[in-house]
Amino acid sequence: MSYIVNKNDRLHVTVEDLTHDGAGVAKVDGYPLFIHGTLPGEEVEVHVTKTLKNYGFAKLLEIRTPSADRIIPPCHVFPPCGGCQVQHLSYEAQLEQKRKSVRDVIDRIAKLPHVPVHPVKGMEDPWRYRNKSQIPFSTRDGQVISGFYQSKTHKIVDTDVCIIQTEEADAIMTALKRELHSLGIDTYDEKTHRGMLRHVVVRKARATGEVMVVLVTLKKKFQQKDAVVELIRNTVPGVTSIMQNLNSNKTNVIFGNETICLYGKSVIIDSIGDIQFEISARSFYQVNPVQTEVLYKQALDYAELTGEETVIDAYCGIGTISLFLAQRAKEVYGVEIVPQAIEDAKRNAELNGIANAIFEAGAAEDVIPRWYAEGKRFEVLVVDPPRKGCDEKLLQTILEYKPKRVVYVSCNPGTLARDLRILEDGGYETKEVQPVDMFPQSSHVETVALLELK
Ligand code: SAH
After folding, report:
1. 118 and 137: one domain?
2. How far does residue 34's CA lie from ligand 1's centre (Å)?
3. Segment 142-168, tens digit of pLDDT
4. What separation in angstroms does the CA of 38 have from each of 17, 79, 114, 185, 442?
5. The pLDDT value given to residue 3
6. Quick one: 113 and 181 in the same domain?
7. How many whole angstroms from 422 Cα to the centroid of ligand 1?
8. Residue with CA at minimum distance from ligand 1 atom 1
9. Which domain, by its residues, includes 208?
10. Residue 72: CB atoms within 10 Å
């Protein structure tokens, strides 16, 4: 319990900040209150719902002075749908908010207030950008529902339209919802572990227009296969691939191990810049193709390659950044922990006739020290780690062998800032930081930082 603010208090507060999950933050004598639905600069009336030792939560009752950046969210399920967090903030203000959040950790955690954090590179049209939708299906009160999960729950918010996904995904979601009953297909129930259709995944290759639909089912055998294929083909004329993935496990992981082709090809082809990628049902692939190109161009610019360099791409996934780099480097070494992704990387290198990209499956922090121990030397190192940032051991390897330039691509500004501080202390200088908006309407931000050896 706090002594300044108590549960059930009705307060008039000014919102100062926005958290990562889109809640406004107001401070009452230094005590932070989190208030969903509010924006920085707003004066609001709130009802305190919960107080903990160091912070509390409140419910918005009334906005007294709205932010000049507040807009009416165009989506009818925002909130409660957990897919987007900041639709009520104008896009321009979203970008500024993201820049501020990166600036903040670069100042506070990396302790680099003099390093420039550039304005966020945003999208011209920040809607309909997602090339992959993973749509859960269920039944509520006898009606088939499908849409997206409410934030931090497994409760489906039913909708026919999602304006950050493709129109093809909308069409599939709606058509299946309407027709499942008459086709005699039931939906999966997480509690009883019964029912056929679990998820439908729709992927679209932006550059080629190819579309893949994956039906994730509890059982392999279902009699209505032909009818479903026909329904999907009628809904998305020219659909490239219809797949079935079998997931008989009691789990909330979407995919199971076995995938079979019901119609058309088993892969779709996309390209980013002039590199082609083969995408299968379960391949990892960036979800915003327009901004992926912006992000990779930035990484490539910072790498400043002349064609003479040997480069590492650590945490390379299916080798997307590696293949970009390979066009301008002598050699690129990609390392990634998921063996399947490395197989995709090798196939994609072949598909593009790129012979100077070498891929190895393993943990970056184990494989890279071994490469060095074998006598290999690298001028430039690109890292693109998951949210938890670079492994400590990898950072120590960098500090020991001192590649001239490090390009750090990050999906979590907090761990980026932590790692920048470690690299700074070990002899690197952070030159500049460029955030890129990969996920408009959400509060996520991607960042590229350039470091050089002092
Ligand atoms: N650079 C890629 C993927 C980045 S996502 C792209 O742009 O598409 C981060 C990747 O790091 C994931 O593919 C994940 O599987 C991988 N990963 C996680 N821990 C790892 C580790 N210790 N060593 C190598 N790769 C790792």
Report:
1. no
2. 33
3. 999 999 999 888 899 999 999 999 999
4. 9, 12, 31, 42, 15
5. 66
6. no
7. 20
8. 316
9. 132-272
10. 7
